[in-house]
Amino acid sequence: MLEHVFTALRSRQGEWVSGEGLSRELSISRSAVWKHVSTLRRQGYGIESSPRKGYRLTRAPGLLSPREIRMGLDTRVFGRKEIFISKETDSTNTQALMLASQGAPEGTLVAAESQSRGRGRRGRTWFSPPGKGLYLSIVLRPGIPPARAPALTLIAGLAAVEALRRLYPGLGARIRWPNDVMINNRKAGGILTEIAGDMDEVGSAVTGLGLNVDFREFPPELQNRATSLALETGRSADRASLARCFLEIYESYWGSFIRGSTEPLFERWRKLSLSLGRQVTVETSAGIVSGVALDIGEDGSLLVRDSQGRVHNVFSGDLRFQDGNSC
Ligand code: BTN
């Protein structure tokens, strides 16, 4: 019943909701309503009360919570069953991989207020200070051949960019191959996909999303390359809404990907890509590839034509632009 009282107040945040109306609507006594309101207050919600008007939710606690993420979440699987949120963890990807190895179902969500060992791609550290970013990971059960795995990351990056474009249409978020979330040519977020399985099949995978939400400053090494929603919009953002929007879009893309209907997703990826048609250098584990980024392949690889006209399929690496607009 606590959750019903919460939903009634949260969905009409800022408006007065009559105590009598609530008790009728939920078939509970007025003193039960009052008890639930007291519990919510103890959990950090600011709720005013007036004998004539009822209750009014004025402030939700800044912390991410399963309840805030689930409120109005329109998914069937992602974030539906288990949501684990901690104040601090080593890495939400590490935790999600562990849960996946213990049989956690697809859609299990792990998030944290901060990460002590947040990981980025290619062994880098992901800057994860408390309360300022969105750090979340989702358990997936793809059952696809390993050759299709790089596309997982592309689709998650696309979903993150689409979520930002839906919530912040004015920011014009774009993708830098393979999966960097870019705003005004600076990195605002990224995706780390990690897989487990055998040679024939990717049994489980974890997609981790890191978004710079409320950062006002960055460590010196990131200062000229990174940005955040707070810096771009001048205000704080609601991390639960961002998480919800990402989960909804990603789940729908995920369904298309699993059904093999990838072309519309790739088409959209091409439209939102900052990389295609540009002179790039990609640093891969096997060396450097320079040339024009032509397209992406079915498998998510980047096709780069070098100065001798040879086309390389690049599966992973760090991309830099060579045409003056580098970041
Ligand atoms: C990158 O661009 O290098 C990928 C960054 C991915 C960071 C996220 S934060 C949540 C999840 N947990 C991690 O340790 N990493 C990912």
Mean pLDDT: 92
**Main sheet: which strands, in order across?**
3-4-5-9-8-7-6
Name the helix and strand elements from N-terminus to C-terminus, one letter apiece.
HHHEEHEHEEHEEEEHHHEEEEE
Backbone structural class: alpha+beta
Summary, kept brief:
With 327 residues, the chain is of the alpha+beta class.
Question: What does this entry look like structurally?
Answer:
This protein is of the alpha+beta class. Helices cover 31% and strands 28% of the residues. It is built from nine helices and 14 strands. The chain has a seven-stranded mixed beta sheet, with helices on both faces. A five-stranded antiparallel beta sheet has the order 13-12-11-10-14, with no helix packed on it. Strands 1-2 form a two-stranded antiparallel sheet. The protein is elongated, with a radius of gyration of 22 Å. The structure holds biotin.
